[in-house]
Amino acid sequence: MALTGMDIYKMLPKKNCKECGFPTCLAFAMKLAQGGVEAEKCPYMSEEAKMKLAEATAPLMKTVKFGSGDKTYTLGGETVLFRHEKTFVNRNRFAVMLKDTMSDDEINQKIANMNKVNYVRIGENMFVEVAAVKCESKNKDQYLKLLKKVKDECKLAVPMIITDDPEIAKAAVEEVKDLGPILYGANPQNYEAMVNIAKENNLLLGVEADNLEALYDVVSKIRSGGYNELILSTKADKAKQLFDDIVNIRRTALVAQDRVFGYPSVVFVNNLSSDKFMQLAYATLFVEKYGSIIVLDEIDYSLALPLFALRQNIFTDPQKPMRVEKGLYKIGPAEENAPLLVTVDFALTYFIVSGEIERSKVPAWLLIPDAGGLSVLTAWAAGKFSGKTIADAVKEMGVEEKLKTREILIPGKVAVLKPDIEDALPGWKVVVGPEEAEMLPKFLKDYTNRVA
Amino acid sequence: MAYQKPRQTFKGQIKEVVMGKDLKIGGESVLPFYTFDGDTGNPPRIGMEVWDVAPTGWPEGLMNLIKDVAEDPAAWAQFYVKNYNPDFIVLRFVGANPDVKDRTPEECAEIAKKVADSVEVPLVIAGCESNEKNGKIFTKISEVLANKNYAFLSAVEANYKEVGAAVGLAYGNIVVAESSVDLNLAKQMNILVMQLGVKPEKIMMNPGISAVGYGYEYVITTLDRIKLAALDQNDTTLQMPIISPISFESWKVKESTATEEDAPEWGSLEDRGIAMEICGAVGVLAAGSNGVILRHPRSVEVLKNFINSMLN
Ligand code: B12
Ligand code: SF4
């Protein structure tokens, strides 16, 4: 619970000696409660009071880590319920479920798909970061065999060991501990043994219980035992209940300011339905509302393309629009006669357009004016992508000196700009391109053939 | 210490609007699907897209389903209602576009009337790319279908006077006020339409949409902020139900149009489009939309199951 100024005041020595820089202990306490000053400023505070304060002023939701090396990820650490209030900081991670009772074919298929989904979107590598490896057989050897296979064949993913048997857990951790796995399966019955294994290896520990009340109880116990690297879930297998649980874990931490639930969550959407599109629907919900590890039965591009894009959107900082520098960009080994295209300085647009030009294999120039960091139509509607801005950019970047071409390709969505640009740039011809950048490869090939 | 679940209740409530005879939309006083906080109002509603012209560029599987009805919007709408049970049909006048068929308002009205007569569910009438043309066709269609409580998508800044006066005032239908991903613009459009004299129960809004990955964070944040203003600050100018034509954008982007030859590693084109549509639709529902417009029957099935499982 958050401490009030009065709570803190009670812990202070009440000497009113002013050494902290405040006229009275009470004034200092009030400032501390707001987080505007550090407890260290009072030299006379007891160690116990300092500890209590540190606890009370720590972030409401803990930031936890898993993985190793360049596959180290952070989860949690969120401070708001809505991205516009500040920003969401640690994106959720996706997992695919593998069970030791599945047939070899099924496992091989899933692993192959996990390895296949690996691509770049707007500068970010997209792949499934977690392999959820579940022991269902209750047989240690059978489980370890699968875990080894995952370790060898799923190089992109960090394993999440799922078992509630401490003995199997111990052996499993031994097998993959270098990868910084998540150990999932602490519950009200086994938590002491599971905490010990996690503690020894400094692992993120997944705690689950039947419902929020039972979860609260077991997490409280684990915390008072001193372990804090946790990720939480309930066993709800109905969407309505699971959503209730996950939203309320987050609200208990951030709104009720109760740190017992100040940890990220694991969401097994694969338990809600076996249909891949239903899992997509639930995964979408939990990307927006507070899932930190989202477990699916499988991955393929049809699921990955929307889900990873959604995640990338939701976890961008709303206070920092993504922009690229204005300039004349060379794409491929473009020479002075290569085609010239123009687009805006919104990072999303730039990456899409430059990506499509690359895909076309036609070397080209891409001119980026200062368009306020907005998309094509947004910038156009805001008057920041006009005949004048484009003509000014041509002049400012010295395009006429650097290139021989006197044709400029514009986005199809702003075809109306053609006459304005031609008026502002005597001697130039404007060619209206397709509306969607996806059509650029075909368009550019036809265009260069025609010119050649 | 025993666990205490936090609860969030609000002063405000989203207005309930009746579409057609008795399809209620909106009415909630909590955040979307927050059954644990209070009254979630009417379940989010789902509409399916039907065009006045046979569509091009739709995926093969879907075209196969509708091949016998795609030339006849009334038969098409009937087919959808019978087989997929949508809450409403969205009749979209792509052919009114001056660059497509340049259909006259009278032609459009005739088609709309036929479709209206062939199905029991309410219609949502959507226009073409031209705001000017939409003003004209909406006026005529709402006249022919007066007092049906059909929703017209949309009134925008450029044509709201004409659309609002005809649809909302003269002919007793529902005006959907559209704005571009901004809370203040949404508010302003609602106010402008109300100032014409259109009653709040006859207004819904579309505060902007995009495909997932294409500026979608702005869409979600706009919806979040609108819902919080409506519920928490009890801002009555933002309490209109929200309708999101997700299919209008989801099927345009590369993820759902790149052919299987062009992107062999991406797999089934139809699956990709369905997935973009499902993700876009669930995403806006989770942020406060009260209704979504979809194109593919598979997406409709998934959204129905999803909504049902979240509320029951
Ligand atoms: C997100 C968004 C915003 C964000 C801006 C985010 C940003 N950085 O741009 C915010 C909320 C700030 C915003 C504001 C506004 N917006 Co806005 N916004 C959108 C939205 C939802 C998505 C835009 C987006 O990100 N698209 C994705 C990018 C990748 O698309 P793109 O840049 O066009 O690029 C594609 C193509 O053009 C093509 N392409 C790009 N470059 C090139 C180059 C060549 C040579 C070729 C061939 C092709 C090509 O490739 C890309 C992929 O296919 C759209 C609606 C929609 N669904 O599209 C409205 C939209 C663009 N906005 C609109 C408007 C009106 C505005 C405002 C003017 C509203 C207002 N009155 O204040 C303001 C202006 C901002 C300002 N004054 O600062 C309108 C524009 C209407 C019009 N047709 O003129 C739209 C269409 C919404 C609508 N339906 O009303 N907006
Ligand atoms: S330094 Fe400590 S004891 Fe002295 S006034 Fe400040 S709070 Fe009180």
From TrEMBL, chain A:
InterPro entries: 4Fe-4S_dom, Ac-CoA_synth_d_su_TIM-brl, ACDS_complex_subunit, AcylCoA_decarb/synth_gsu, Dihydropteroate_synth-like_sf. GO terms for molecular function: 4 iron, 4 sulfur cluster binding; iron ion binding; methyltransferase activity. GO terms for biological process: acetyl-CoA catabolic process; methylation. 5-methoxybenzimidazolylcob(I)amide binds at residues 343, 349, 373-376, 437. The keyword Transmembrane does not apply. It comes from Thermoanaerobacter kivui (Acetogenium kivui). Pfam families: CdhD, FeS. The lineage of its organism: Bacteria, Bacillati, Bacillota, Clostridia, Thermoanaerobacterales. This is Corrinoid iron sulfur protein subunit alpha.
From TrEMBL, chain B:
Pfam families: CdhD (PF03599). Signal peptide: none annotated. The keyword Transferase applies. Gene3D superfamilies: Dihydropteroate synthase-like (3.20.20.20). It is an enzyme of class 2 (transferase). Its EC number is 2.1.1.245. PANTHER family: ACETYL-COA DECARBONYLASE_SYNTHASE COMPLEX SUBUNIT DELTA (PTHR36214:SF5), PTHR36214. This is Corrinoid iron sulfur protein subunit beta. It comes from Thermoanaerobacter kivui (Acetogenium kivui).
